[in-house]
Amino acid sequence: xxxxxxxxxxxxxxxxxxxxxxxxxxxxxxxxxxxxxxxxxxxxxxxxxxxxxxxxxxxxxxxxxxxxxxxxxxxxxxxxxxxxxxxxxxxxxxxxxxxxxxxxxxxxxxxxxxxxxxxxxxxxxxxxxxxxxxxxxxxxxxxxxxxxxxxxxxxxxxxxxxxxxxxxxxxxxxxxxxxxxxxxxxxxxxxxxxxxxxxxxxxxxxxxxxxxxxxxxxxxxxxxxxxxxxxxxxxxxxxxxxxxxxxxxxxxxxxxxxxxxxxxxxxxxxxxxxxxxxxxxxxxxxxxxxxxxxxxxxxxxxxxxxxxxxxxxxxxx
Length: 317
Prior knowledge:
Elements: H1 2-27, E1 42-46, H2 51-62, E2 66-71, H3 74-87, E3 92-97, H4 103-116, E4 122-125, H5 143-165, E5 169-174, H6 197-218, E6 224-230, H7 243-251, H8 259-262, H9 264-271, E7 282-284, E8 287-288, H10 298-312
Parallel strand pairs: 1-2, 1-4, 2-3, 4-5, 5-6, 6-7
Antiparallel strand pairs: 7-8
């Protein structure tokens, strides 16, 4: 019996090796085929120092955009910017400090940005944390809902005027397939009663989808569109807080996208000509994607909007 088991494992391993190239091609997913240029356009990307954020910055810089990389770790951001400059001659990339886990950092970033930047044509809310141990942001929010949703909510609020003045403009929100498994726990949004890192992550990604839906409704007629996306399962540092996820990603690496492949839908939502008037939608592999019923609830979206404003102490008409 043991011999048969070992032989079976061997056969599976051989088949895996033989078909690995085909698996990788399938896993790569959709590709942004737009050749649109962004000369004279300004793009802001959060969390652009690594993974799909860095690859998105590289692609948009190659299209002629002025790319501002908002990073918590400025040193790593500068390393990423240097790498982009070596690959793209004349790339206009800048690094600025932004800690989405600290409202004061977000406000300071926005104040400086508004003083020094005259236009903003694309805002890509890319930064995020995944399945981290229970920790709180500087302002006392559970880290995942605090960074993935509330931090970007506040940043967008502070920059929305500039986006409107720069119209046509686009907002791109990086969410996840995980939103399908999320529920907004209004009775315990900060997971004080109980905490499951996976469920908290799913809640924050659902919040991204609901934010996109409600913001799109509020931006109708402004010339600013907003869409969310699932980048796919990508080889990145995002799973570093989960031993199980890290192990699974290592075992099934052939089924994962590279950061460049994972960035394709972000780039697509930022540049595709056919999306110039599309807003409030969700994409994956550079195509419209399924949204879970709880992500289509207008009532939940409005409730989350009001709660978010209350938590952040802001008014957003």
